[in-house]
Design brief:
Layout (H helix, E strand, L loop, with lengths): L4 E5 L4 E5 L6 H4 L9 E5 L14 H15 L3 E5 L1 H12 L6 E5 L10 H15 L3 H11 L8 H14 L7 H6 L17 E5 L8 H10 L3 E5 L5 H4 L1 H12 L6
Parallel strand pairs: 2-3, 2-4, 4-5, 5-6, 6-7
Antiparallel strand pairs: 1-3
Length: 253
């Protein structure tokens, strides 16, 4: 099935952007603000309101591959769930892209730990109760206290809660929570593309250890730790600069 996409910019290189669970195109667009060439954003399956028969990192990787192939993308960016889809794709086709960015990877070949499961459990309970207010509060609880009361944080939590309560996403967070992104971590050692892995400290849902292991496994992996989870909110300029500078590098030089 063709995924809903948004294309901005033009020319080479072509970069595809994969969002996280409960997110969408609006979440990945800010990361591409300084990226050269053509930027292709898409909505992952079930996030467009259409129920699906299959969900998980395998089907999500298939969506990513189809969008990338249709756009002739040579570079890829994935955040959280999107990073998992990207690693799954690379497990089977390690040479598909020539430059990669993984932002807040959540899981590799080992199931999520207790802290990550606790974060997901709080979301699942509110989703199961179809309680928008409780779900919004659960999402806000993930946001650092220093920025939790800001209008941007409140708007983010409200919009994400609306997305997570879509009927098409019912039950899917449970499926994703039990899966690993790759079955054979050593397969990623065949990825020759330069890769940037970005993490934050003290992020229970996206452990720094996962990002560190991914960067160490990828032969051309580079790890960047932004600091605490508030860095996503307070150091956005630095985050966008990291992404654009890395993706704008010319591998032919």
């Amino acid at each position: 099935m063709t995924r809903p996409t948004l294309v901005r910019g033009g020319g080479d290189p072509v970069t595809v952007f994969a969002h996280g669970f409960g997110g969408g195109i609006a979440d990945t667009r800010p990361y591409a603000s300084g990226v050269d060439g053509t930027k292709v954003f898409y909505t992952a399956r079930a996030h467009d309101g259409i129920p699906v028969d299959e969900f998980g990192y395998g089907p999500l990787a298939e969506d990513l591959r189809n969008v990338a192939d249709a756009a002739s993308a040579t570079r890829a960016f994935g955040v959280s769930m999107g990073a998992g889809a990207l690693t799954h794709l690379l497990e089977h086709t390690p040479q598909r892209f020539d430059r990669l960015v993984f932002f807040l990877p959540a899981v590799l070949d080992v199931p999520r730990g207790e802290a990550a499961r606790a974060v997901l459990a709080s979301l699942r309970e509110a989703i199961a109760a179809d309680d928008h207010a409780a779900l919004t509060d659960a999402i806000l609880a993930e946001i650092p206290e220093s920025v939790r009361g800001t209008p941007s944080a409140t708007a983010y939590a409200r919009i994400r809660a609306e997305t997570l309560l879509m009927p098409s996403l019912a039950g899917l967070i449970e499926i994703l929570a039990e899966q690993v992104a790759v079955t054979d971590l050593s397969s990623l050692s065949r990825v020759s593309a330069p890769a940037l892995v970005i993490a934050c400290t003290d992020d229970a849902a996206h452990p720094e250890a996962v990002a560190r292991q991914l960067a160490e496994t990828l032969p051309e992996g580079r790890l960047e730790i932004l600091g605490g989870t508030d860095a996503v909110w307070t150091r956005r300029d630095r985050l966008r600069a990291l992404i654009s500078e890395f993706l704008n590098e010319d591998d032919t030089l």
